[in-house]
């Protein structure tokens, strides 16, 4: 007897999940090495690769090893590498002068990469925290993180990075007006092709802990960053920050951290349509790797799923410590 109309589902959504070929055919999003930016920690010395204990698999590398890493990334199809210097205590001062020293670690690493691997884009961080004795992203006067004096220093830092050959400048400091000030200075000094990826919506997050270990800032940091980084309770404010930074001349914007803020990624992309990136930060990486090391989740599947969610949320790409492993895995198909 023929089943009645109601006896079977009119729409069988499972039909398009039957085989991997059909699943690939109807996939709404894809992840490729071209979506990834790889954050790398730079330290002094030569031939040095030093593990970061709170980030299993992540290394601090001397400049020669960073160049090798950049070459490997380029071969894997990763378009950009992002440099973070590990600064020793003697280079952390109240005036933060090391931040705009043309010979600082970040600038030397940039020149070495641009000379050896011209095809990869170099991104750098603009903020005073690697160079300040307080561990804050700005100058501290009478307990206050002062905005405008900090912006003047950030402009000097950004210009020294542009002189070294950086392609993308990433202000991560959350001071007001810094994108406009940096853009104006870049134009005035002939660096009109240097891009700005603003850390526009950067939250005061518990997930930065392992990063602060990696760059040697944990012991330096006094207090918290809540007077300049965003309150995790807010979402409209993120849109106001992104709108402001785009108006001031940012070419690309970032939401940070990543996985706890996918709603912000989605709203940002839909509201502005500008190139939008997420930073899957150190604590997100550490959290996944801790579960992997305990045998609680599968490394490869968790890694790719955690990256795909950014594409689904509307991001153009993602900064991730998984970048080289993920790119290798994607290359295997
Ligand atoms: C510094 C900076 C931080 C990160 C990137 N740039 C830390 C902070 O704001 O304290 C965090 C990255 C990560 O956790 O992976 N301005």
TrEMBL record:
It is an enzyme of class 4 (lyase). GO terms for cellular component: cytosol. The active site is at 202 (schiff-base intermediate with substrate), 256 (schiff-base intermediate with substrate). Keywords: Heme biosynthesis, Lyase, Porphyrin biosynthesis. One of its GO terms (molecular function) is porphobilinogen synthase activity. The keyword Lyase applies. One of its GO terms (biological process) is protoporphyrinogen IX biosynthetic process. Pathway: Porphyrin-containing compound metabolism; protoporphyrin-IX biosynthesis; coproporphyrinogen-III from 5-aminolevulinate: step 1/4. Its EC number is 4.2.1.24. It catalyses: 2 5-aminolevulinate = porphobilinogen + 2 H2O + H(+). SMART domains: ALAD. It comes from the Bacteria. Belongs to the ALAD family. Homooctamer. NCBIfam families: PRK09283.1. This is Delta-aminolevulinic acid dehydratase. It comes from Roseovarius azorensis.
């Amino acid at each position: 007897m023929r089943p009645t109309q109601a006896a079977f589902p009119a729409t069988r959504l499972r039909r398009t999940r039957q085989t991997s070929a059909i699943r690939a055919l109807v996939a709404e999003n894809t992840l490729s090495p071209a979506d990834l930016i790889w954050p790398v920690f730079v330290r002094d010395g030569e031939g040095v690769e030093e593990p970061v204990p709170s980030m299993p698999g992540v290394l601090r590398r001397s400049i020669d090893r960073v160049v090798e890493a950049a070459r490997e990334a380029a071969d894997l199809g990763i378009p950009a590498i992002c440099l973070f210097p590990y600064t020793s205590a003697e280079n952390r001062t109240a005036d933060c002068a090391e931040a705009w020293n043309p010979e600082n670690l970040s600038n030397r690493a940039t020149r070495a990469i641009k000379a050896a691997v011209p095809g990869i884009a170099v991104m750098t961080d603009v903020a005073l925290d690697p160079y300040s004795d307080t561990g804050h992203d700005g100058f501290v006067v009478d307990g206050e993180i002062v905005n405008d004096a900090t912006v003047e220093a950030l402009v000097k830092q950004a210009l020294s990075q542009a002189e070294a050959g950086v392609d993308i400048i990433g202000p991560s400091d959350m001071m007001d007006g810094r994108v406009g000030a940096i853009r104006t200075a870049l134009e005035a000094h002939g660096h009109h092709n240097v891009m700005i990826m603003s850390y526009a919506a950067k939250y005061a997050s518990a997930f930065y802990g392992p990063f602060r270990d990696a760059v040697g800032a944990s012991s330096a940091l006094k207090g918290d960053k809540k007077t300049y980084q965003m309150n995790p309770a807010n979402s409209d404010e993120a849109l106001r920050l992104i709108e402001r930074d785009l108006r001031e001349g940012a070419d690309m914007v970032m939401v940070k951290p990543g996985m706890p803020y996918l709603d912000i990624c989605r709203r940002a992309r839909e509201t502005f349509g500008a190139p939008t990136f997420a930073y899957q930060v150190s604590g997100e990486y550490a959290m996944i790797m801790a579960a992997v090391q305990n045998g609680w989740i599968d490394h490869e599947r968790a890694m790719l799923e955690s990256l795909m969610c950014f594409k689904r949320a509307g991001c153009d790409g993602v900064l991730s410590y998984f970048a080289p492993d993920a790119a290798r895995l994607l290359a295997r198909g």
